[in-house]
Amino acid sequence: MSTDDAASPRTPAYRELAEKLRADIEAGVYSVGRKMPTESVLQSKHNVSRHTVREALQILLTDGLIYKVQGSGTYVGGRRLDSKGRYIRSIGSLDELIIWPETDTEVIEPFTVVVAPLVAARLELPYIEVSRAVVRRHYNELPFVLTHHYVAPELGEQLAAEGVPAVGEGTVIGAAEKFLTKPVMGAQQEITAMIAQEPEAELIGCRVGDAILLIERLYYDADGKFIEFTSSHFNPRRYSYRQDVRRRTT
């Protein structure tokens, strides 16, 4: 029986592998700056599926323990700790935006059609209605971000029929790709410091008047068409945003 088959339902195989690789990195088996083994090597060494390897590596990517160099491979970036217990998220690619390892999702509001002219304009829709869903994410059982998701009503109807958003690590934009004719290629992002207001303050565990982060993203497909707009309020005492910027190699 493979490791995938034997894994406990409470501990998915990809999480077990991620922890093994994390332990190897922290023990110096894979030192900082060293190139990681290929997916096929890891698959053979740990007797797991290619999908399990990719999901495990995605967790380490999001945690900032490893990073990818296009055309070269995956390298060890080192260990990061946050003594304050915040959820640290390292973003270096679109793939890292569509999964939230080690968090729990709470659906506050499923997709429903609302009138929102300004949001519809940002999505470049020819009408003023959009489909909106609201979710809250928890880390260590504490809420740290409240996100409003906006898509075209037709896409919102398809996602709602699929039960999206739902509890788990995935995202709306990740689930939406199966309904698109073109793949999602990127996102425009704005980060703003602001003062917490009700009801966002209570929902992310801070006080009215506290400084919080507002991160807005517009996701677009290969044709440049906007697919989703998200507006997220973060409690910075429980969340830290890290972006790795590297020189491209040839």
Automatic annotation (TrEMBL):
Chain ranges of the HTH gntR-type domain: 11-79
PROSITE patterns reported for this sequence: HTH_GNTR
Gene3D superfamilies according to UniProt: Chorismate lyase-like, Winged helix-like DNA-binding domain superfamily/Winged helix DNA-binding domain
Organism lineage: Bacteria, Bacillati, Actinomycetota, Actinomycetes, Mycobacteriales
Protein name: GntR family transcriptional regulator
Keywords: DNA-binding, Transcription, Transcription regulation
Entries under CDD domains matching the protein: WHTH_GntR
Species this chain originates from: Mycolicibacterium goodii
KW Transcription (keyword) present: yes
The keyword NAD belongs to this UniProt entry's keyword annotation: no
Pfam families: GntR, UTRA
